[in-house]
């Protein structure tokens, strides 16, 4: 599945399950989440963390491709707090770099303690209750100078030297910037990965997958056209040109049933979702409760080849039940068969999460 989708987004919200676990359940059904943890946390790693679409898990071979879109732009393309620390506190950045590279993988708090840094008195100036050391860590992580050896059960990133994270097969290209792909080659490969993940996509779709600038995407598309990896196509109902990946499957029918995380790559690009399914979807986590339309943690429901509804879900772990707090069907959907299919999917999810029952709205 990782080879197909290319990357999986991470998010800290745990009202249902950590977001990185859900896309695998949507595609594979019940599985052992420990497998995913081991792919990320144990050597030789099959997945590493970096800023791709957002914070994401990706194969180690993809990490060097992010040098030009992200790493080299750490000073002008990262969050303002990271840039400010790099410019105003180079001595802190140097100390943090040396501490991470010289020791075992550690969390922010462990590294702050080792460096003697504190958050007291810094909250108002730095925001998010991040210390100067934390901003330095994030700057170095964005710049590709350090990496992550995984996450703790509390979702804290464990910062580590590159040497402690990279699998032997990828060590040369990770540790020697001169061995990494050229800028044009990197963009070609990132667009190829995006095209394979989506099957058919417009230029803007391809740019959104890794959050690339359009000026880099079009030349990559041209190259992939020339090599036969992407074929220009017209899609009925689409006003813009599209490209079909050579390995995309075109089945006569799709028999799918899945609840999709708000951070699933299938629904990342909202204009694409509307083009494909005529389905208007927005995340309402950050919307005030009184202004929410569909709920807090809302998962679109895919049945067959159509998004037919959405469900606001919460894992009530103390009561041992999966709460379906609100179900909203698309116009013309929600009949007996649709409701039965959704009920079966919810029960399967509850069992996978170790919950005993589903409680509906």
Brief overview:
This protein has 361 residues and is an alpha+beta fold. 39% of the residues lie in helices and 17% in strands.
| Spatial order of strands in the largest sheet | 9-10-11-12-13
- Secondary-structure element order, N to C: HEHHEEHHHHHHEEHHHEHHEEEHEEEHE
Low-pLDDT runs = 121-129
- The class by helix and strand makeup works out as alpha+beta
What about the largest sheet? 5 strands, mixed
Rounded mean pLDDT is 94
Strand content: 15-25%
Would you count the extended β strands for me?
A: 13
Tally of helical segments: 16
Distance between the termini: 33 Å
- Helical content stands at 25-40%
Q: What is the overall silhouette?
A: globular
Q: Rounded to an integer, what's the Rg over CA atoms? A: 22 Å
What does this structure look like?
The chain has 361 residues and is an alpha+beta fold. Helices cover 39% and strands 17% of the residues. The protein has helices spanning 2-5, 22-28, 33-41, 74-77, 80-88, 90-101, 108-115, 123-126, 132-142, 162-165, 171-175, 183-198, 203-209, 214-227, 270-277, 336-352, and strands spanning 8-9, 48-51, 55-58, 147-151, 157-160, 200-201, 230-233, 242-245, 257-259, 298-303, 306-316, 321-329, 357-359. The protein has a five-stranded mixed beta sheet with strand order 9-10-11-12-13. Strands 1-3-2 form a three-stranded antiparallel beta sheet. It has a three-stranded antiparallel beta sheet with strand order 6-8-7. Helix 16 (336-352) links the parallel strand 12 (321-329) and strand 13. The protein starts with a helix and ends with a strand.
């Amino acid at each position: 599945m990782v080879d197909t989708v290319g990357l999986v987004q991470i998010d800290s919200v745990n009202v249902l399950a950590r977001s990185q676990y859900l896309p695998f359940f949507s595609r594979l059904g019940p599985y052992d989440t420990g497998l995913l943890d081991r792919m990320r946390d144990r050597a030789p790693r099959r997945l590493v963390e970096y800023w791709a679409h957002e914070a994401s898990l990706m194969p180690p071979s993809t990490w060097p491709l992010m040098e030009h879109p992200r790493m080299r732009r750490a000073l002008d393309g990262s969050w303002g707090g990271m840039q400010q620390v790099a410019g105003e506190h180079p001595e802190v950045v140097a100390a943090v770099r040396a501490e991470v590279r010289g020791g075992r993988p550690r969390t922010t708090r462990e590294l702050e303690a080792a460096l003697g840094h504190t958050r007291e008195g810094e909250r108002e100036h730095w925001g998010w209750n991040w210390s100067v050391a934390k901003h330095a860590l994030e700057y170095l992580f964005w710049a590709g100078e350090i990496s992550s050896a995984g996450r703790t059960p509390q979702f804290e990133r464990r910062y580590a030297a590159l040497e402690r994270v990279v699998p032997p097969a990828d060590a040369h290209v990770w540790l020697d910037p001169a061995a990494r792909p050229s800028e044009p080659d990197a963009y070609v490969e990132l667009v190829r990965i995006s095209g394979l993940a989506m099957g058919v996509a417009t230029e803007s779709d391809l740019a959104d997958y890794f959050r690339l600038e359009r000026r880099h995407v079009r030349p990559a598309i041209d190259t992939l056209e020339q090599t036969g990896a992407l074929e220009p196509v017209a899609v009925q109902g689409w006003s813009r040109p599209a490209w079909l990946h050579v390995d995309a499957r075109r089945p006569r029918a799709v028999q799918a049933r899945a609840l999709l995380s708000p951070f699933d790559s299938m629904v990342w690009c909202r204009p694409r979702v509307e083009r494909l399914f005529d389905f208007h979807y927005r995340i309402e986590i950050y919307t005030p409760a009184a202004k929410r339309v569909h709920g807090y943690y809302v998962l679109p429901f895919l049945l067959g080849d159509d998004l037919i509804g959405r469900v606001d879900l919460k894992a009530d772990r103390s009561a041992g039940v999966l709460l379906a707090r609100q179900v909203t069907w698309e116009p013309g959907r929600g009949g007996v068969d649709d409701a039965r299919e959704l009920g079966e999917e919810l029960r399967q999810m509850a069992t996978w999460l170790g919950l005993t029952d589903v409680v509906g709205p």
